[in-house]
Amino acid sequence: MDYAIRMLNANELQEALHLVWNVFLEFEAPEYSAGGINEFRAFIDPDTVRKKVENNEFRIWGCFIEKKVVGVIASRPPCHISLLFVDKQFHRKGIAKALFNELISYYRSFTEYTEVTVHSSPYAVDTYHHMGFVDTTAEQEINGIRFVPMKRSLEC
Predict the structure, then answer these.
(1) What is the DSSP annotation of 93-136?
(2) Residue 156: count of CB within 10 angstroms of its CB
(3) What angle do CA 116, 62, 149 make, to 5 degrees?
(4) Distances (CA, A) of 49 to 8, 30, 43, 60, 126
(5) Cβ-based neighbours of 153, under 8 Å, separated by 6 or more
(6) Within 10 A of 124 (CB to CB), how many other CB atoms are there?
C-alpha cells in the first residue's frame, strides 16, 4: 500500500478531525455515556485544535493515500499520544503502527524524552499492547471518557 505520513497543515485539520469523529462514533462512542461523547466532541473542536497546534500544544500527523487522510495521530507535551484513529477500511494494514513510528521518530530527536504515554480507549488497548505499551493502572473514567493509562519506552 502506497501512503505518505507527514505533519498536517492548517488546511487539512478539518478533514482529519472529521475522520477522527467518524471513527470515534463507530468504534468507541457505543461504549461511552452521552457526557463522554460530548466531552470528546469538544476535545476535537476544529477551532480549539487549530489554536493548540498554533501554540505548539498539539502536534498532529496524517497518513495520506493519494490526497485523502486515512489516519491521524496527535500528541501533546511532553510526549503523550492524544489521538490515534484510522479509517475503518484501512484497519489492520499497518497504518496505526506507521503513524506511531513517525511520532516516535520525532520524539527520539529530543534526548530528554525517555517514554511516551497514552490514555488508551478500551477499544484500542490491544493495538497499543502490540506496539509495546504496558498498562500503568486499571481502566479509569473522567468526564465520561473511559481510558487505560499506558506507557512505552522510546528506546524499544
Answers:
(1) TTHHHHHHHHHHHHHHTSTT--EEEEEE-GGGHHHHHHTT-EES
(2) 10
(3) 25
(4) 12, 24, 8, 9, 27
(5) 114, 115, 132
(6) 22
How distant, in Å, are the alpha carbons of 30, 43, 67, 80, 146 from that of 103?
28, 20, 20, 10, 23
Cβ count within 10 A of residue 44: 20
12-48 pLDDT, tens per residue? 999 999 999 999 999 999 989 999 999 999 999 999 9
Q: What is the pTM of this model?
A: 0.94
Segment 10-21, tens digit of pLDDT? 889 999 999 999
| Nearby residues of 108 by Cβ (< 8 Å), 6 or more positions away | 154
One-letter amino acid of 26: E
Phi, psi angle pair for 61, to nearest 5°: -110, 150
Q: What angle do CA 124, 129, 134 make, to 5 degrees?
A: 110
pLDDT at 108 over 90: no
